Amino acid sequence: MAGEIQLNGTTAVTESSGVITLNNVNSATNRSNLGLGTAATTAASDYIGTSRSITAGTGLTGGGDLSANRTLSVSFSADESAVKTAINASGSANIYACRAWINFNGDASTIGTGRNRGNCGAVSDHGTGDYTVNFTNAMPTADYAVSLSTNGNSSDAHNTYVAYLYDNSSRSTSGVRIVTTSAGGSHLNNLVITVAIFC
Predict the structure, then answer these.
(1) Each residue of 152-162: b (16+ CB within 10 Å) or e?
(2) What whole-number distance in Å separates Cα of residue 160 and Cα of residue 93?
(3) Separation CA 118–CA 134 (nearest Å)
(4) Which of 3, 18, 159, 184 has the highest local Cβ count within 10 Å?
(5) Where are the beta strands (DSSP E) in 30-159?
(6) Where are the beta strands (DSSP E) in 66-191?
(7) Nearest residue to 130 (alpha-carbon basis) of 151, 112, 107
(8) Coil, helix or strand at residue 7
């Protein structure tokens, strides 16, 4: 019949002046022919209406009713309870990140970037027990905290060894200069030197 499109012998779709119309989608037969299932339900149950909404939960912003496209954005700080739980940081004290760290052999002929590192480039060797740890990405300030540790050289690994800042101007946003010595103050190239930066 002109103006009709039949599926499986049923007029499920009609055409008029170039407009195609789905006929009675609540009819079980038409629904089956259109691939919508056989249940003869109301149209309201077959789609999500604009009265429904998306609600932003903990750590999220945005959402709203479905009358338009909606965006959910993650919005939380490092001190959110979910973050603390994930990294086993209990209590109310704030969390501050280690911004750079390195473990290197101060006695190596070429120190390079050390054994392992994060946000550190090649170490500059200024002589026995005198090094600059260079940052890959600059610190936001030179007023950061430096954590140092060191132990041993090849001849004696069990005596007391010391690591400290080279002088009062040792810290810059691009790197930090350190010294490693024996307990008596003699500069030594120690086998293990670690540096961590916090700010």
Answers:
(1) ebeeeeeeebb
(2) 33
(3) 11
(4) 159
(5) 53-55, 60-65, 72-74, 98-104, 116-118, 120-127, 130-135, 145-151
(6) 72-74, 98-104, 116-118, 120-127, 130-135, 145-151, 161-165, 175-182
(7) 107
(8) strand
Amino acid symbol at 183: A
pTM over 0.85: no
Q: How far apart are CA 197 and CA 199, in angstroms?
A: 7
What are the structure tokens assigned to 122, written together?
């090649």
118 is written with which tokens?
């994060």
Name the token pair of 174: 């691009």
Per-residue pLDDT of the chain (199 residues; tens, 9 = 90+): 455 555 555 555 666 766 666 566 556 666 666 666 655 555 555 566 777 888 888 778 888 888 888 888 876 777 777 778 888 888 888 888 899 999 999 999 999 999 999 999 999 999 999 999 999 999 999 999 999 999 876 555 567 789 999 999 899 999 999 999 988 889 999 999 999 999 9
